[in-house]
Design goal:
The protein is of the alpha+beta class. It has two domains: 147 residues, no CATH class; 349 residues, LCP protein (Aminopeptidase, 3-Layer(aba) Sandwich). Helix content is 50%, strand content 13%. It is built from 22 helices and 13 strands. A hairpin with a 5-residue loop joins strand 11 and strand 12. Helix 3 packs antiparallel against helix 7, helix 7 runs antiparallel to helix 9 and helix 11 crosses helix 12. Belongs to the LytR/CpsA/Psr (LCP) family.
């Protein structure tokens, strides 16, 4: 306890001496104290009121008001403790509650009420400080602290703003609909990277992947479908089965990424009014037929808005083995085809999009793999700390770039499932070369669906083996190890050389393109599909 002294005459100090056991007297009667103890008293009471509203009033002698304030304070701290415990033990349940519109409105009202109550408590605390008893310099210091304390009571107001922003974004992104049922113990989601760029008639999903997650273990697999995949069949219960009884099979005009536009322009009436986006539903039906599984929901990200989401997350980190070209500033400062070399990169949104979409001097397979790599890097960035730190930016970006038919009520369970999946190795299968046949075999043009369905089921049956191997480092094998050397990360970097024996660099590749030596550029790009996300 702070020792208070006084230089007052004995008669003035008699009140304190009369009740020596009452340690709170100096707090109740600051007029009997010297300047420094009065200043300390004011600071201590103000800090106590911020941490445990009500204690300042009790110590200062206003026990009735203090007890009322303190009861509410105890309830608030108990509620916060309960939320923390729930976040540790069952984060999915907590997020599910926070995603509920009724709970969101209740939280907004409660936070607004908390802000008003805390403000009134602080005003009452300022009264018991007895600022008039302080000398001018101390009065200015404590006055400034009081202003800061009053501003601190606005924290719940910001919390209400954040909850409301989340409520608005979640309400616009997610559907209010019954929960999605499991199919064979799995959730199967279609992810579309959509592009309505220049020279295109309508929107076309250039990135098409199905993420399948085991609801019990969190083991997940990504099935990537090349944009030029043809002859997609439709399940018997799809209305498009009547429109395309032999599948989407009109030749080169019927590559899979044109289906969305075709249905939106010509066949959207085959789906009833309950279908939010007929084009997306058609893509779900087609991927269900291709893979031989039931795709239950979709999420579509506008590729131009993709960059905004990554920026909201603070960028993504990846490591790649080969060279990747993109449109940018070349070493001499001119604009043209620039290059990212092998190694580690921290991409902002625009660069991540360019990295994922680059196909020059490369293949669609390599492009798909890099897209998968960026997707995984994004998933790793969706950790609780990052989401909380950038919540409003993420919600704002998500509201503009994401469309989905997933039910809002299952958001909590999906987040819990994503946490399980984050800790495990993701299996990948591209429904085309080289996972099916070799480049040039035209498997994507004339697919063997029995073979595809068998490989998909084999991927699921391998989950037990993958679970045992979880945590082991991924090794990227090289088709030409003699050209490379191993790095601690497990990636192989290929040290292609110039005629003089020195390693190639960006300037060299730019020069090779200028003089038309495209074979060297293709060789440099050969391994750019070998990419992994970094934490």
């Amino acid at each position: 306890m702070t020792q208070f002294s006084s230089t007052k005459p004995a008669a003035a100090r008699s009140h304190l001496n009369a009740t020596p056991g009452r340690l709170t007297d100096p707090f109740r009667h600051p007029e009997h104290l010297d300047e420094q103890p009065r200043f300390k008293r004011a600071v201590l009471l103000l800090l106590a009121s911020l941490i445990a509203p009500g204690t300042a009033q009790i110590v200062a002698g206003d026990k009735a008001a203090g007890r009322r304030f303190l009861r509410i304070t105890v309830l608030l701290w108990a509620g916060l403790a309960a939320v923390i415990v729930l976040a540790i033990l069952n984060r999915g349940l907590l997020i599910g509650l926070l995603a509920n519109p009724i709970a969101q409105w209740a939280a907004i009202i409660a936070l607004l009420g908390l802000a008003l109550w805390w403000f009134l408590v602080q005003l009452n605390t300022i009264r018991v400080l007895k600022l008039s008893s302080l000398e001018p310099n101390h009065k200015r210091i404590v006055g400034a602290m009081c202003v800061l304390a009053l501003l601190a009571t606005g924290i719940p107001l910001y919390g209400a703003y954040v909850v409301n922003a989340g409520r608005s974004a979640l309400g616009s992104i997610f559907e209010t609909k019954p929960a999605i049922d499991l199919v064979d113990g799995r959730y199967n989601f279609l992810l579309l990277g959509a592009d309505a760029g220049e020279g295109r008639m309508g929107l076309r999903p250039d990135s098409i992947s199905v993420v399948s997650v085991n609801a019990k273990t969190g083991q997940s697999a990504i099935f990537s479908i090349p944009r030029d995949f043809q002859n997609a069949p439709f399940p018997d219960d799809s209305p498009l089965k009547q429109v395309y009884p032999d599948g989407y099979s009109c030749g080169d005009a019927c590559i899979i990424n044109s289906l969305y536009t075709d249905v939106m322009n010509n066949h959207r009436d085959v789906y009833d009014d309950s279908v939010k986006d007929p084009g997306a539903q058609a893509m779900m039906d087609a991927t269900s037929g291709i893979l031989g599984i039931t795709v239950q929901g979709y999420a579509m990200i506008d590729m131009q808005g993709f960059a905004e989401m990554i920026d909201a997350l603070g960028g993504v980190k990846v490591e790649t083995e080969g060279w990747v070209t993109y449109r940018g500033k070349q070493p001499d400062g001119t604009w043209g085809n620039a290059w990212w070399g092998p190694g580690k990169h921290h991409f902002n949104g625009a660069d991540a999009l360019s990295f994922a979409r680059s196909r020059k001097y490369s293949t669609d397979y390599s492009r798909v793999r890099r897209q998968q790599c960026i997707q995984q890097a994004m998933i790793q960035q969706f950790n609780p700390q990052n989401v909380l730190a950038n919540f409003t930016q993420i919600m704002s970006a998500g509201e503009r770039v994401v469309e989905t038919d997933l039910p809002q009520g299952q958001l909590g369970s999906f987040v819990s499932l994503a946490e399980k999946a984050r800790a495990q190795k993701v299996q990948k299968l591209t429904i085309g070369a080289p996972d099916f046949g070799e480049p040039g075999d035209k498997f994507s043009t004339y697919p063997d669906f029995d073979q595809i369905h068998t490989r998909v089921q084999e991927t699921f049956s391998n989950e037990e083996a993958e679970e045992q191997a979880r945590g082991e480092a991924e090794v990227f094998a090289s088709p030409r190890p003699v050209l490379g050397f191993s790095k601690p990360s497990g990636l192989m970097y290929f040290e292609l050389t110039k005629p003089d024996g020195s390693p190639i660099d960006e300037s060299y590749l730019v020069e090779m393109e200028r003089i038309g030596q495209y074979g060297i550029l293709e060789q440099a790009s050969e391994n750019n599909h070998k990419c992994k996300p970094l934490s």
